[in-house]
Amino acid sequence: MMTSHCCLIVDDEPAILATLSMSLERMNPPFKCVVAENLKQARARFQEHRIDICLTDMRLPDGDGMELIQYIQRHHPDVPVAMITAYGNMDSAINALKSGAFDFISKPVDLQHLRNIVSSALRIPTQKNSHEPNMIGQSPPMLELRKTIQKLARSQAPAYISGESGTGKELVARMIHAQGARTDKAFVPVNCGAIPRELMESEFFGHKKGSFTGAISDKLGLFQAAQGGTLFLDEIADLPLDMQVKLLRAIQEKRIRPVGSHKESHVDVRILSATHKDLGRLVDEGKFRQDLFYRINVIEVRVPPLREREEDIPALVKHILIQLYQQSAPLPGSQMPEVSREAMDMLKTYHFPGNVRELENILERAMTLCEDRRILCDDLQLPSQGAIKMQLHNSTVPASLDPLLDNVEKETILQALEKTQWNKTRAAKLLGLTFSTLRYRLKKLNLEKPPHDEE
Question: Checking CA distances to 444, which of 3, 32, 113, 206 falls within 20 to 30 Å?
Answer without folding.
Answer: 206
